[in-house]
Every structure is written in C-alpha cells, then in structure tokens.
UniProtKB/TrEMBL annotation:
Coiled coil: none annotated. This is LRC34 protein. Keywords: Repeat. PROSITE patterns: LRR. InterPro entries: Leu-rich_rpt, LRR-containing_regulator, LRR_dom_sf.
Length: 417
C-alpha cells in the first residue's frame, strides 16, 4: 500500500466491511490524493479533509467516519499530514485519534481546530503524545478542552521530546494550566512555537505573564510565542521585556489584542535597542497611540537592525506616530514588513507611505495599504495582507505560500507547509 497507494478503494472496502456509509468529503479527498500520488507521495502528502471546504461536497467528518479513515491510513506511510479542521469530532473521535497516534509512525502534522473535543478527549490525545515520536505540529485551536484539558497537555510537554509546534489558542484554558505549561517549557527543549491565545483569566494580577517571563529567562529553544487576548497591561509587558534581555532565541512575539498603552511600548522600545533576536512583533489592537509609535520609531531608526516585521493594526495611532515610523523605515533597511491599517490616517501619513511604496522601499506584498489618488489627494486603501491573515481559514481558491501571511518569517517550516 505504501508503494502503490489506492486510498479511495481501501476506504470503500473499509466502509463496506464495517457497514459505515461513505462520507462524500473523505471519498473526494482520497480520490484526489490517489490521482496526484505519482508526483507527491514520495515527499509525503497532507490530506485536507476540512469541514469548511466549499469546493467539494461537504458532509462533516463524524467520530465513526474517522474510525474508518484511521483504519485506511494505518499503513499509509506517505500520508504525513492530516487536516480535520471544522468537523464534528467529539471525545469519542479523540479516542480513535489517540489510538491512531500511538500506532502511526508517519504523521507529522495534525490539525483538529474547531471540532467538539473536550476535556476527556484532550486527556486521550495528550496521553498518546507521551509515546508518539513522530508528530511535529498539533493544532487544537477552538476545542473547549478547558483548564483541566490544558493540564494534560502541560504534563505531555514534560514527556514528549518531538513536538515542535503546539496551538492551544481559544481553548478556554485557565491560569493554572498556563502556569503549568510555562513551567514545563522551562525544561522542554523541543517546542519551537506555542500559541496560548485567549485564555479565560479571572485575575488582574497578571500571574500568568510573570510565569511566562520566568520561563523565557531560561528557555533557549522557543522561537514563536503567541500571547494574544491575555488582558495584558503595561506591567506584564515590563516583565516580558526584562526576560527578553536575557533571551536570544525568541524571534516572533505576538502581543495582539491586549491592553498595552504607550507606557508599555516604551519598555518594548528600550528592549529593541538591545535585543538582537526578535524578528516579528505583533502589537495589533492595543492602544499604543502616537507616543508609543514614536518610541518604536526611535529604536528602529537608531538602534535595532534585527526586526523584520511589525504589526500595529488598529492601535489608535494618528499621523504623527505613523509618519515617524515611515521615517524610521528610510534609515532602517532591515524592517521590510509593516502593517498599519485601522489607524487614523491624515494626508501626511498617506503621502509618507505612498512615497515608501513608490520608491521601492516598501513592497506591496509587505504591507496592508495601497496608495491611490483622487482629485490630486493621495489616500490609502486596505490590502488583504498581514502576519496571520490565514490563521483561522485557508482560501479554497488558491494555495497561500506567503509565510508573511500565514505565520512566522523565522521559524523553520514543518509538515504543514
């Protein structure tokens, strides 16, 4: 089967033998994989059985559907990725997935985002990863595993030495498991990227940020860290910055959708004057205002030559701050990507960024604005570009190759790409 893959035929036989009706979505994807196997299977193939795919018949994958599929893929060593996002897998399906992960020695990428997996399902999947030595990238985004489910993944991180990317964003985790995960990462040497976006926090003391900061002081393997929607304030940013003076590995820091003001950005500006590791900084949807933008522009113009991408989308910045950042780009040639939409553009801002684009200093693919002229006045229109435009969805009509739009510039690509 690994030499001459015929996934669809095996799926038909498996459905007939178990009495399970064929799922049209699975059948369509397997037929397409069989058709393309000559050029693709030797490098490994990712089966994209996403329940939000509008170009093929969509009957979302159930627990019973996946049980049959798992039996088909048991010996398919050329299948190295499995995308099951936006289906209806529950804890029962997670049990089948755990068995599959224990027996499978080929899968490197698994996307389970936005299914219906809960705490017991998280326990089973995390338990399977205690022994799995193949999987590199796991996305659990949007499954409501809760604080207890997150604790099982924290325990897994103490045992697993293979997993490189773990996405636990929007999983309703609480402060206890965030602290446990941060503690586990003080010893885990394999995780390169972790997403902890949107936990459920009930305290204003920012204990979780303090523990993440302590972890960053000792962790030398983490490259990408997402702390969006953490209700983080200036105190939390100060703690992170103190840790990052001693950290030389983190290259992508996501602090979007927090409560950071210009005073917090001042700490980041001072950090950028000395830090020689950060390449991507996401400050979208904070309230950094002109003063914060000026702090950043001073650091970028005079000191920092490492940062390559900056997002300040919807950060309540006006013309003075935006013009200052455009001026920094004229002297800092390393900063190649900047995203500014959602701020308050005046004519000076429009002129400044139009000039950067026309002179070739800022490439159209590296920003989210495009200049146009009406009655002799320059304006800026929005472009669909950004650091994580395709975090929750992937366009069905095209293959998105740009790392700038999908994730990090810096982290090494794994099986998802």
């Amino acid at each position: 089967m690994s030499v001459h893959p015929d996934l669809h035929q095996h799926y038909v036989w498996a459905c007939q033998s178990t009495g399970q009706p064929e799922n049209p979505l699975i059948a369509c994807v397997l037929q397409e994989a069989d058709k393309n196997h000559i050029t693709r299977w030797t490098k490994g193939v990712t089966l994209k059985i996403a329940g939000n795919n509008h170009l093929v018949p969509v009957q979302r994958v159930t627990d019973d559907d996946f049980q049959v599929l798992a039996s088909v893929l048991h010996n398919a060593v050329f299948v190295t990725g499995l995308d099951l996002r936006c289906n209806v897998l529950t804890d029962a399906g997670a049990k089948h997935m755990a068995t599959f992960l224990q027996d499978n020695s080929a899968l490197r990428y698994l996307n389970l985002m936005f299914n219906d997996i809960g705490t017991s399902g998280a326990e089973l999947i995390a338990g399977a990863l205690h022994r799995n030595e193949t999987l590199l990238h796991l996305r659990m985004t949007g499954n409501k595993i809760g604080n207890k489910g997150g604790m099982f993944f924290a325990s897994m991180l103490q045992m697993n030495s293979t997993l490189e990317k773990l996405d636990l964003g929007d999983c309703d985790m609480g402060p206890q498991c965030l602290i446990a995960i941060a503690t586990a990462l003080t010893h885990n040497k394999s995780i390169k990227a972790i997403n902890l976006n949107r936990p459920l926090l009930y305290s204003h003391e920012e204990e979780t940020t303090v523990h993440v900061s302590l972890m960053l002081k000792t962790n030398s393997s983490l490259v990408e860290l997402h702390l969006g929607k953490h209700d983080m304030k200036n105190f939390g940013v100060e703690q992170l910055c103190e840790a990052l003076y001693k950290n030389s590995s983190l290259r992508y820091l996501d602090l979007s959708c927090n409560k950071i003001t210009c005073d917090g950005v001042k700490f980041l500006g001072e950090l950028l004057k000395q830090n020689q590791a950060l390449e991507i900084l996401d400050l979208s949807a904070n309230c950094i205002e002109d003063a914060g933008a000026i702090y950043l522009s001073e650091a970028l113009a005079l000191y920092n030559r490492t940062l390559r991408a900056l997002s300040i989308v919807s950060s309540n910045i006006k013309g003075k701050g935006l013009v200052a950042l455009s001026g920094a780009m004229k002297t800092n040639t390393e900063l190649s990507h900047i995203y500014i939409w959602g701020n308050k553009f005046d004519e000076a801002t429009c002129m400044a960024f139009s000039e950067l684009i026309q002179m070739g200093r800022l490439k159209p693919d590296c920003t989210d604005v495009e200049p146009y002229e009406v009655d002799g006045h320059v304006h800026l229109a929005e472009l669909s570009h950004g650091l994580q435009k395709h975090y929750y969805w992937t366009p069905s009509c095209e293959v998105v190759m740009s790392k700038d739009a999908n994730a990090s510039l810096a982290i090494a690509a794994v099986s998802e790409y």
